[in-house]
Design a protein that fits this description.
It comes from Paralimibaculum aggregatum. This protein is of the alpha+beta class and 326 residues long. Helix content is 39%, strand content 17%.
């Protein structure tokens, strides 16, 4: 798996590193680093996760740890985490990883350190201007009635819903089947491809429905609505075919909102106990993450520069993660 090791690369980064180091108390200095082995942090396919991973990595570096970032797919990463080849994954979206995450926990080789705190939401999004040509939106029944508007040559006579990239799971395709909809889920190539579709649709004022999420910077620039699916999610929807409107299927209800958790190789607590404690306390607000992603993806600024600015502006937040805070 590709790796990268970051080091301060600018005057801003050097000043920030000094400030971070100065803020660590003697207790933190005594506790870390407990091992000269690098802490290896997983990097997934979307910018928000890059932000989360880099914030955590820079705090670890300020404590004296060597940090490496390992590029890994949302599902394949768990093989490396279970084997200890990757140490930490600070942003695990449960809906993207199928049984890989539960199986890793059940094996005892990984531990769940709780919610990241993003205040996230996922569902089928659409440009709000579609409400003029498809009356009744955001109701799902209205979308079904307007399926020809979102059909393409690839899907006709079915409508098209742009799904997550294939290695993020099959959530859209599963929901379409469970709900018995006359639409087809087509996997996007990447997060960037999804954003490009949104931008193109708004530029041309054409219909589009896609699986998407919040927090994400696109909501600050584009007016997106969410398709309303009934009944609302309940645990029985996943197990009892008689519970929802389709007596032949489970999952025929609104999307379950994903848990976004922090995970680590189980050996981390013994190898780097102070770093493990930081991960336990680590949390990131979705609004803050979205603002950083906007700076990176929309304004083209370097990831590390944006993260450095956030750390410099929010010492009260990250200081609460350090060993003395625990």
């Amino acid at each position: 798996m590709p790796t990268r090791t970051t080091k301060p690369s600018s005057a801003i980064a050097l000043c920030l590193a000094s400030a971070l180091a100065a803020s660590a108390t003697q207790a933190a200095a005594d506790a870390a680093p407990e091992s000269d082995r690098p802490i290896r942090i997983a990097i997934n396919e979307w910018t928000g996760q890059h932000v989360t991973a880099t914030i955590l990595g820079k705090v670890y570096q300020s404590m004296g740890y060597e940090v490496e970032y390992v590029t890994a797919g949302a599902i394949p990463q768990f093989t490396a985490l279970v084997e200890g080849e990757i140490t930490v994954q600070p942003e695990i979206w449960s809906n993207l990883v199928g049984d890989a995450w539960p199986n890793a926990l059940a094996s005892g080789a990984m531990v769940n350190l709780g919610s990241l705190g993003l205040n996230n939401f996922e569902g089928w999004a659409y440009p709000k201007y579609m409400e003029e040509t498809c009356p009744g939106l955001p109701d799902l029944a209205a979308l079904v009635a307007c399926k020809d508007q979102i059909a393409t040559a690839e899907t006709f006579p079915k409508g098209r819903i742009l799904a997550y990239p294939a290695d993020w799971g099959t959530r859209t395709i599963d929901a379409i089947a469970a709900l018995g909809l006359p639409v087809q889920g087509i996997a996007a190539g990447s997060e960037g491809a999804m954003v490009a579709e949104i931008r193109s649709a708004f530029a041309q004022q054409r219909p589009l429905v896609l699986m998407f999420w919040s927090p994400h910077w696109v909501h600050a620039e584009f007016d997106l609505g969410w398709i309303e699916i009934t009944p609302p999610f309940a645990a029985e929807c996943l197990t009892d075919p008689a519970w929802g409107p389709n007596p032949d299927a489970t999952g025929d209800c609104a999307f379950e909102q994903a848990a976004v958790d922090k995970g680590a190789w189980s050996g981390m607590s013994e190898t780097w106990p102070a770093a493990f404690g930081v991960l336990e306390r680590f949390a990131l607000d979705g609004t803050d993450q979205s603002a950083m992603v906007f700076e990176i993806d929309r304004r083209g600024r370097p990831l590390e520069e944006v993260v450095d600015e956030w750390l410099a502006a929010n010492p009260e937040t990250w200081k609460a993660w350090l060993p003395e805070a625990g």
